[in-house]
Amino acid sequence: MNRLYEKTKLGNLELKNHVVMAPMTRSRSIGNVPGDIVAKYYEQRSEAGLIITEGTSPSPNGLGYARIPGIFSKEQTSAWKQVTEKVHNKGSKIFVQLMHTGRIGHELNLPKTAKVIGPSAILAKGKMWTDEQGMLDHPVPKEMSKEEIHSTIQEFVMASKNAIEAGFDGVELHAANGYLLEQFLHPSSNQRTDEYGASNENRIRFVLEVTKAVSDAIGKEKTGIRLSPYGAFNDLFPFAETHDEYSLLAEKLNEIGIVYIHLVDHSSMGAPVVEPKTVSAIRKHFKGTLILSGGYDATRANKDIESGNADLVAFGKPFLGNPDLVTRFQKNLPLANFDEATLYTPGEKGYTDYPLA
């Protein structure tokens, strides 16, 4: 029997297999509310034991991209209920990924009173799509005051409570890929001189405070986090203290006692390889579940699960064009390609119209 397809546990949840659907932004939530097609999309992909949703903002300030969902309003929370119901009816579990985009955004994508914020007023190189004016440069973010730091922590807490109300089995804090939580972890985006910057201990403080507050609010067994050491997304690149900082972070996350760390390796997309010593250090310091993702096929996934390198393996792109990915893996069927042109366009085309094998 292939371990990948056997039942397993995630904290106190039973998963029907070791396959995780990785979080992927799809920009289908008109008005930042997930509609019927979003529910259909996740229902189609519920062969995964665990689904982690696309990045979902805990705050109006975190809606940096066009048409991404939030989970800070009653309307959004209510809309997510049909997603969780459909996935649960198929026997899968689902966590919502809480993604605050921080400095990666544009005012034209935000509600009127919201603003682009970050740990420091440092511009991220790159452009952002806006439905109104097309591609525009990222703006310089407003440096967050201590009051804004504390209110943002509370936004994560409220969003987590909303997630549980909406029927999610837990939340994943998105501290990867260059968004707000990682912006605090990184010395190029975080040049603060207060207790939130200037040393490894200080740079990890905001992430730990968010994690502790969320796990206190909804339960540590319902709280996970995604990290991307050695990532190269959104103008954040590996730095001299990457290994030491992430080793320390894993140790402190273990003390909080969250259910999982989801470690993403973007080398298959051109980023540097995650140093094996860093993965080993995280594995050593963190005693909870370790989810690995990045360029996996079924064979390598099973190998890493059997060897104990990973407890669960997440697949992203293969799930886009193959809603029945687990069946295709098990029957050794060819995988369909996905349409790059419709990754972020509104509507069902290239979203819910991929056929089963």
List the helices and strands and how they pair.
Elements: E1 8-10, E2 13-15, E3 19-21, H1 36-44, E4 50-56, H2 74-89, E5 93-98, E6 117-118, E7 127-130, E8 134-137, E9 142-143, H3 146-165, E10 170-175, H4 180-185, H5 200-203, H6 205-218, E11 223-227, H7 242-256, E12 260-264, H8 276-285, E13 289-293, H9 298-307, E14 312-315, H10 317-321, H11 325-331
Parallel strand pairs: 3-4, 3-14, 4-5, 5-10, 6-9, 10-11, 11-12, 12-13, 13-14
Antiparallel strand pairs: 1-2, 7-8
Describe this structure in words.
- Belongs to the NADH:flavin oxidoreductase/NADH oxidase family.
- With 357 residues, the protein is of the alpha/beta class.
- The chain has a single domain (3-342), classed as TIM Barrel, CATH 3.20.20.
- The protein has 11 helices and 14 strands.
- The strands form 4 sheets. The protein has an 8-stranded parallel β-barrel with strand order 3-4-5-10-11-12-13-14, surrounded by 4 helices. It has a two-stranded antiparallel sheet with strand order 1-2. The chain has a two-stranded parallel ribbon with strand order 6-9.
- Helix 7 links the parallel strand 11 (223-227) and strand 12 (260-264).
- Helix 1 (36-44) runs parallel beside helix 2 and helix 3 (146-165) packs parallel to helix 6.
- The longest helix has 20 residues, at 146-165.
